[in-house]
Design brief:
Blueprint lengths: L7 E2 L28 E3 L9 E2 L9 E7 L3 E8 L7 E2 L15 E2 L1 E4 L5 E4 L1 H9 L2 H4 L3 E4 L2 H6 L8 E3 L5 E3 H23 L9 E7 L5 H14 L10 E5 H9 L7 E3 L20 H11 L3 H6 L5 H6 L3 E7 L4 E8 L6 E10 L4 H15 L1 H10 L1 H17 L8 E4 L2 H11 L3 H7 L5 E4 L3 E4 L1 H23 L9 E5 L6 H11 L5 E5 L5 H11 L4 E5 L3 E7 L7 E7 L4 E3 L2 E9 L6 E9 L13 E9 L19 E6 L6 E6 L4 E8 L4
Parallel strand pairs: 4-13, 13-14, 16-22, 18-24, 22-23
Antiparallel strand pairs: 1-32, 2-28, 3-28, 4-5, 5-6, 5-7, 8-9, 8-10, 11-12, 15-23, 16-17, 17-18, 19-21, 20-21, 24-27, 25-26, 25-29, 28-31, 29-30, 30-33, 31-32, 32-33
Helix pairs in contact: 1-12, 4-5, 6-17, 10-11, 10-15, 11-12, 15-16
Protein name: Heat shock 70 kDa protein 12B
InterPro entries: ATPase_NBD (IPR043129)
Length: 670
């Protein structure tokens, strides 16, 4: 089939083996489908799925934006030297002791809703505002999680600033992405004055792999609004799944660029203090290649078991521990080209570093009262931000073997506001509270014992470990010996120690890249240069559409395109043919359904739900609707869907004219 036109990206991730469903298609019917406005073309069957190689658009540079819950950044590389990754300039401002190759995901808008600043600049400016003036400004932080947690996400979803005011989430995200676009292009112009923006930049946006389809489409819509790319050039924007990007990067690392947590010295807390794997591994690996010896050679050569475990099957887990989520993927490294195959669908949940922040807020509520904390956040939003910054600085120094207490500075406005609201001082509140291990320092600080800080970490860290252990129980993951721990939260010594203690006993080797917080960003750049590196993915859900039995109109058959947990190769297509219900019909709308079960047969089965709509925009046939000689209602529209990419893509063609038909899948209209 001659499929013309560019694929339409729809902002979601669906992937599975597009095998034919065991549910038969209904026979031909003279009646139309009332819910869809189409009639399936029968008795001819859809052809078997076929794989098509991805078409690469020309570009000179790849710019990847890692849009995180707590921090964000960008990096780029030129097509002429794709593995030379250039990190963005270090940001102005920032916290002492923190690498500034990322900036806080903080957006500041004026009281009128206009863009003011992003990152450290936004945070510091908001900090310096007069408390009364700050109440009118719109300050957004850690807002990415809203997209994941909203069950009815639409283009009209609202986000709430710290002062309680709301504005459309799409505009908030577009402001942030537009900032990164302008910042990155300015740096590119300075490094390469001859670079033309149009048609030369491929943009990559990272999203969690566990995000639902509407959330991924939402990010693409925000990118369109921000002007990263136009809808007509949709292929210039790629959506990268965060643990996949990390995997793409980790597979290229050498041993001296990794830290093996099982070999750390007891009592050491900081990443840089742990003993790295000997760089002489590279020489031993070359000897292994020449000698073709076994795993025993590697172990006895003094190199260690890490590479031996990789050679035992080239399979590994990537645990992306970020600010908002833990995102897990399992890959097999395929030879000889080094492509990746997903062995189990993406899993994880909302267990990120912000969980520790929430636990701290709950601790304050236990001491000073939940109503007071709510009132303080609303009436002194800038001071609340100051308090969270102070806690973040201490959170980064927490370690499992730390013995000294941690001091957290309370803003003066907090102390003053509590005295006015509560009628007594914060020291009295601490004495009266039932909270142990937290005292008042004469220097005006909360003094937290190590036990208190450990208690704040415990729920989030335990949740991450539970997700990893549940994944390791899956049959598809049996025998995996290696886990890459990546993401911003993976810098935490508390998390590293807990994961190694829990999983090391299972024989799993836990490895952390040296630049652990930048792993996803660098991997996204590499993914943008070669998106075909992930050759096979797994479908998170079963997708299909409604087919009614035209003879009886008594059953709602669920015709399956792809099944949950099935494998599907990149570029593999599922094709279906449809016929407009009426002569001269200009638009065909087909409802799509999904479910977690693999064997659903009807849309009335438990768990089956409407999740989106496939729309086909039809041009009138030359000479009228029946110019092609087809009987009324028999104009064939052939659609092809790809489920093996990070987003579901669809193209369509009018068979009678061989012309491209505008096709799209919308998951934000429900």
């Amino acid at each position: 089939m001659n499929m013309q036109g560019r694929p339409v990206c729809t902002g979601l991730y669906g992937c599975s083996s597009p095998q034919r469903s065991p549910v038969p298609s209904p026979p031909a019917s003279p009646r139309t489908q009332e819910s869809c406005g189409i009639a399936p073309l029968t008795p001819s069957q859809s052809p078997k799925p076929e794989a098509r190689g991805p078409q690469q658009a020309p570009f000179s540079v790849v710019v990847a934006i890692d849009f995180g819950t707590t921090s964000s950044g960008y990096a780029f590389s030129f097509a002429s030297d794709p593995e030379a990754i250039h990190m963005m300039r270090k940001w102005e401002g920032g916290d002492p002791g923190v690498a500034h190759q990322k900036t806080p995901t903080c957006l500041l808008l004026t009281p009128e809703g206009a863009f003011h600043s992003f990152g450290y600049t936004a945070r510091d400016y908001y900090h310096d505002l007069d408390p009364e003036e700050a109440r009118d400004w719109l300050y957004f932080e850690k807002f990415k999680m809203k997209i994941h947690s909203t069950t009815d996400l639409t283009l009209k979803t609202q986000l709430e600033a710290v002062n309680g005011k709301k504005m459309p989430a799409l505009e908030v995200f577009a402001h942030a992405l537009r900032f990164f676009k302008e910042h990155a292009l300015q740096e590119l112009r300075e490094q390469c004055p001859s670079l033309l923006e149009k048609d030369t930049v491929r943009w990559v946006l990272t999203v969690p792999a566990i995000w639902k389809q509407p959330a991924k489409q939402f990010m693409r819509e925000a990118a369109y609004l921000a002007g990263l790319v136009s809808r007509e050039d949709a292929e210039q924007l790629l959506i990268a799944l965060e643990p996949e990007a990390a995997s793409v990067y980790c597979r290229k690392l050498r041993l001296h660029q990794l830290v093996d947590l099982s070999s750390r010295a007891p009592g050491r807390g900081c990443l840089g203090e742990r003993r790295s794997i000997d760089s002489s591994f590279r020489q031993a690996r070359e000897q292994l290649r020449r000698s073709r010896h076994s795993r025993t050679f590697l172990v006895e050569s003094g190199v260690g078991e890490l590479w031996a475990d990789m050679q035992a099957g080239d399979r590994y887990v990537v645990a992306d521990c970020g600010g908002g989520t833990v995102d897990l993927t399992v890959h097999q490294l395929e030879q000889p080209h080094g492509t990746l195959k997903e062995l189990y669908k993406a899993s994880g949940g909302p267990c990120g570093a912000v969980g520790v922040d929430l636990a701290f807020e709950q601790l304050l509520g236990r001491i000073f009262g939940e109503d007071f904390i709510t009132t303080f956040k609303r009436q002194r939003p800038a001071a609340w931000v100051d308090l969270t910054i102070a806690f973040e600085a201490r959170k980064r120094t927490a370690g499992p073997h730390r013995t000294g207490a941690l001091n957290i500075s309370l803003p003066f406005s907090f102390i003053d506001f509590y005295r006015k609201q509560g009628g007594h001082n914060v020291e009295t509140a601490l004495r009266k509270s039932s909270v142990n291990f937290v005292k008042w320092s004469s220097h005006g600080m909360l003094r937290m014992s190590c036990e208190a800080m450990n208690e704040l970490f415990q729920p989030t860290v335990s949740g991450i470990i539970q997700h990893i252990e549940a994944l390791l129980e899956r049959p598809e993951v049996q025998g995996v010996k290696l886990l890459f721990l990546v993401g911003g939260f993976a810098e935490s010594a508390m998390l590293q120690h807990a994961v190694q203690a829990a999983l090391g006993a299972r024989g799993l080797r836990v490895v952390v890249p040296h630049d652990v917080a930048l792993t996803i960003l660098k991997g996204a750049v590499l993914f943008g240069q070669a998106p075909g590196v992930v050759r096979v993915r797994r479908s998170p859900l079963t997708y299909g559409l409604l087919v009614r039995d035209g003879r009886r109109w008594c059953t709602d058959v669920f015709e399956r395109f792809v099944a949950a947990e099935q494998s599907v190769a990149l570029g593999e297509e599922v094709r279906r043919s449809y016929c407009p219900a009426r002569p001269g019909q200009r638009r065909v709308l087909i409802n799509l359904y999904c479910c977690a079960a693999e064997d659903a047969r009807f849309i009335t089965d438990p768990g089956v739900r409407k999740c989106g709509a496939l729309s086909l925009e039809l041009e009138p046939a030359e000479g009228g609707p029946d110019a092609a000689g087809m009987p009324p209602g028999r104009r064939e529209i052939r659609a092809a869907m790809q489920f093996g990419d990070t987003e579901i893509k669809v193209t369509a063609v009018d068979v009678s004219t061989n012309r491209s038909v505008r096709a799209a899948i919308d998951f934000l209209s429900n």
